[in-house]
Each structure stands twice: as C-alpha cells, then as structure tokens.
Amino acid sequence: MKLYGIRNCDTVKKARKWLDEQDISYEFHDFKKDGIDEARLTQWEKAVSWEALLNRRGTTWRNLGDDVRDSINGQSAHDIMLKNTSIIKRPVAEHEGSVYVGFNADDWATLFK
Fold first, then answer.
1. Has residue 113 got a pLDDT over 80?
2. Are 44 and 53 a contacting pair, CB within 8 Å?
3. pLDDT band at residue 110, thresholds of 50, 70 and 90?
4. What is the pTM of this model?
5. What is the CATH number assigned to the segment(s) 2-111?
6. Can 9 be counted among the known catalytic residues?
7. Domain boundaries, the chain
8. Residue 44 in 3-state DSSP?
9. What are the pLDDT digits (tens) for 13-41?
C-alpha cells in the first residue's frame, strides 16, 4: 500500500495510526513536501474522479477566488491540484490497483483486511 497526504494533516495522522495499529505496512508519500506528478494525478482522476479528489472544505479552497470556484471543471481542478497539493483531499491510498480517498476506520477495516 502507498499512502499519500500531508504529514501534519489530522486525518492523515489518524489514517497512519490506524494502519500502524492494524499492522498494515505502507509507504508514505508527503505530497506537500515531495509534490505529485501529473501522471499520478491523472491516474487518480480516472479512478475516482476529480470531484472526489478536490477538497472543497479546506482553507486552500476558500482562498481561491469566487470566479475560480464558480467555474471549476476537470481541467482547472487538475491544474490547481498540481500547483497546490494541499487542495487534494487526504489521504489518498493506493492498494492492490485501486485508489481510495479519505479515511474512515470502518470502511478501511473492510477494504484492507
């Protein structure tokens, strides 16, 4: 499993703690520090959609201009996520060829056991 997120994000911390408690090994990629490449982002968008990846509840989204938020589409969301990874919903997990966005302990217990 590969887990993507931002090291000091509370949700990512919870996900990592849960994985550690379940003794599930994973590789962590901090996309705030290490970025995300365009091919990977495109792969995620195909797997789960740009709408699922775009975090509309965070500060980064709120700091975008009204004109940007009101006219968001697949291409503009893609460009924004590449330039500012903190707008990607976290965590993103890749496991056995599938992509999962967000953390819910009950869901993950079913998915990853």
1. no
2. yes
3. very high
4. 0.93
5. 3.40.30.10
6. yes
7. 2-111
8. helix
9. 999 999 999 999 999 999 989 999 999 99
Secondary structure percentages of the chain, helix, strand, coil, to 5: 55, 15, 30
Catalytically annotated residue among 4, 5, 6, 9:
9
Phi/psi of residue 36, each to 5°?
A: -140, 135
How much is the pLDDT for 66?
Answer: 93
Secondary structure E strands in the chain: 2-5, 27-30, 92-95, 98-101
**Inter-residue long-range contacts of 8-17, CB under 8 Å, 24+ positions, other chains counted:** 9/90, 9/91, 11/90, 11/91, 11/102, 11/103, 12/90, 12/91, 12/103, 14/103, 14/105, 15/91, 15/93, 15/103, 15/108
